[in-house]
Every structure is written in C-alpha cells, then in structure tokens.
From TrEMBL:
The keyword Ion transport applies. Belongs to the fungal Na(+)/H(+) exchanger family. GO terms for biological process: intracellular potassium ion homeostasis; proton export across plasma membrane; regulation of membrane potential; sodium ion export across plasma membrane. It is found in: Membrane. GO terms for cellular component: plasma membrane. It is a multi-pass membrane protein. The chain crosses the membrane at residues 12-31, 40-58, 70-90, 102-125, 208-232, 295-314, 326-349, 361-382, 402-421. This is Sodium/hydrogen exchanger. Keywords: Antiport, Ion transport, Membrane, Sodium, Sodium transport, Transmembrane, Transmembrane helix, Transport. Residues 24-419 form the Cation/H+ exchanger transmembrane domain. GO terms for molecular function: sodium:proton antiporter activity. Its main location: membrane.
Amino acid sequence: MRDVIDVTPVSLSYLVLGGFVVSFSMVSLAIKERLYIGEVVLGTGFGVIIGPYCANIFDPRSWGKESNEITLEVMRVVLATGLFAIGVELPGAYIREHVKSLLIMVVPTMAFGWFICAGFIQLLFPKLNFVSALVVSACLTPTDPVLASAIIGGKFAVKNVPGHIRRILAAESACNDGLAYPFLSISIYLTIEASTKVAFGKWFLIGWLYQVILGSVIGALLGWMFSFMMKFSHRKGLIDRESFVAQYLSLAIFTIGVASTLGSDDLLAAFAAGTAISWDGHFNTHTEDEVFSSVIDLVLNCACFIYIGAWLPFNQYDNDLLGIAVWKLVLLFVAFLALRRIPAMLLLYKWIPDVTNWKEALFCGHFGPMGVGAIFISTLAITRLSDEGGDPSDQEQLLSSMLHPIVSFVVLCSILIRTQLITYSQYCRS
C-alpha cells in the first residue's frame, strides 16, 4: 500500500482545495445570508486551520527558498485574472470618460496615504529608517482588487451601493494596484542605491516609463489585437460562445506572461488588456449572463485565501529582535484604517465628478481593503532586495525580515475586520 498511496504536498493541496470549494458551495447561500460571511473570510480561516500552527497539513513556508517565488506567482495569477475581469466588466470606454475621477482618486490619494502611513510605521518600528518605512507603506497603499470585487460585486452591494460608486471603486482598485509599482520602486531604489540622483533617474526611466507606461501600452495593444481577432473569428464562424468566456483566464495569463517577460508592470497590463478587449462592447455581448467567469473567480479566490491563511507567519508577530509586537501591529492597522484614504477623499471629493457628496466620499475612503495585492507587492519587494548584487546592508536585511510580518498582520486584520464591516453593513441595509 505504501507503494500505491502517494501523499505529497501537491496531492494534499488538491484534496484541501477541492474539499473546501465543494463544502462551501453546498452551504454558501446560508452562510452568506445568515452569518454574513463570504468565501474570503472562510477561506482564510480554513487556511489557518490546516496551516502549520493548527493541523499542520499545509505549510507554504516549508518549501524553503522557493516559497517566496511560489507565493509571488500564486498572487500574480489571481490578481491578473481579477484585474482583467474588472477591465472587461466596466462599461465600454469607461476609462476615457472617467479619467479625471480616476486620476484624482488614485494618484494624490495614494501618495497621501503612502507618505503619512510611512511616518506611523517608522514611529512604531524605529529600527526602520523612513525610506524603509516607505517600502512597507507602498505594499499596503493600494486597494486590493480581489477583495474589492468580492465586496462590491455581490447582489447586496448591487442593491445598496450606487452603480457609479461601485464602478469607480472597481476601476480605482485595478488602477492603484498596478500603480503601486512606482511607489515601491522609488523606495527600493533609495534603499539600495548610494546616490539619490541615480535612484530618481532609475525610478523615472524604469519605474514610470518602462514599467507603468510601457506595461499599459502592451496590455492595451494585446487587448485590442485579440478583440480584432475574436471579431474576425466570429464573423467567419470559427469561435463559439464558450470560447469567448475562456478568454477571461487564458488572455489574462498570456498578458502577464508577455509583460513580466519584458519586465513591465504585468498587473496594469492585465487591466489594460481587459479594458481594451471590451472597449466597443463586442466581447461583453458574447460573455454576458455566463457564469463560468464567476466560477473561475470563486475557485481562484478560495485557493488564494486558503494559501494566505496557511502562509501567515504568526510566529513573527511578537519578535523582540525585530522590534515587532502585537500591540504595535494593532495600532498600525488602526492608523491605516483612519488615515490611509479617508482624509484625502474628504479633502478631494469636490474635484471628483463620480463622488457627489461627503457621504459617498466617506464610503469611498473607508472602502480600501488590503489583501492579495499587498502580499504580492511585499513578496516582490523581498525578491528585489534579495536579488541585488553585493552584500545587503543591515537596513536591507532588517527591511526584508520585517516586511512579511507587518504586511501580513495588516492584511489579516483587513480581511477579518474591514471586509466584514463593509459586508455586514450591506447585508443589514438589504
């Protein structure tokens, strides 16, 4: 029997994921309507239960040096699929018509939260200098598109949140997740480069021109090209409805493959591709009322948050050597909750056409869940720090060691508290 039974981490992963999705799908309506709990919270909790600190069935951190690379790619695929779907589901030419609202909601709001929250990070963790605090803050600045879609995409959100607010929040979460690259890159360049002039030069040339702008152009071109090809195939009778729906996953993965191979912003490229492919509404017409994309989202989200739950480094949340304590992390989450978005939105909403009053501004400011994107960006930062040539300085080593404990704790609180608060308020109003 030992020659027949092969219990490996991969086979256990299939067993765990399949069992959870089957179980959740059987009782999902009762859980959502009676307990007001979504698959994100349940998936994370289930991951914690099967993780190394409970049942010890699944432990992503036991994979050694490959752990960060695997975590990075899992988060990348889930993010790219979610961003592509957001781009597709927005109305045709939405970005062009709402560019002013998006620019104000993304750039100054992110910059304000990034800078202010970095100050609190350095105050609570004085071993980090301000530049290192900016790196940590950059990981937690963007709104997570996966959590955002899970919150504002359900029927209760459709009933209780105005359509223009849901659309602008979805578009904003997609844009600012891709635009986290420049905030992260300038912080890392200032950390690893001896010259400030060299750091800002690389930031402009690589962070903005090559990653953000080129990534957006690549994604838009790929989306436009595939839109043209699918319309041609449809006219010739070469493609059916099911093949249109399959593009949600295949085109998202192809886009991030092209962009990441070239070293550009793959997340922004995926969003741009989704926006471009649905620009004239042809793709939407052939995919509306199809549930396959929703099924893909459910399975990927469940898998991702089970992975996150098992991945969380609970043993690092009280580390005297790094100066990390649970009470500091709790204070940091409260600071992020109050200052990351709300003050900027209340100050700027009069210049945002899609936000009509201070109540909507307050909701948009409060709505800023942190999740998959934060883990992706923090893991990317660690790989960038580790991949630099030469021996890293003490500050780099310290930053690399503190990134995941700080970011993961804030993400955990965001999943359990912020996500549930928004979800519960929507259910109660229905």
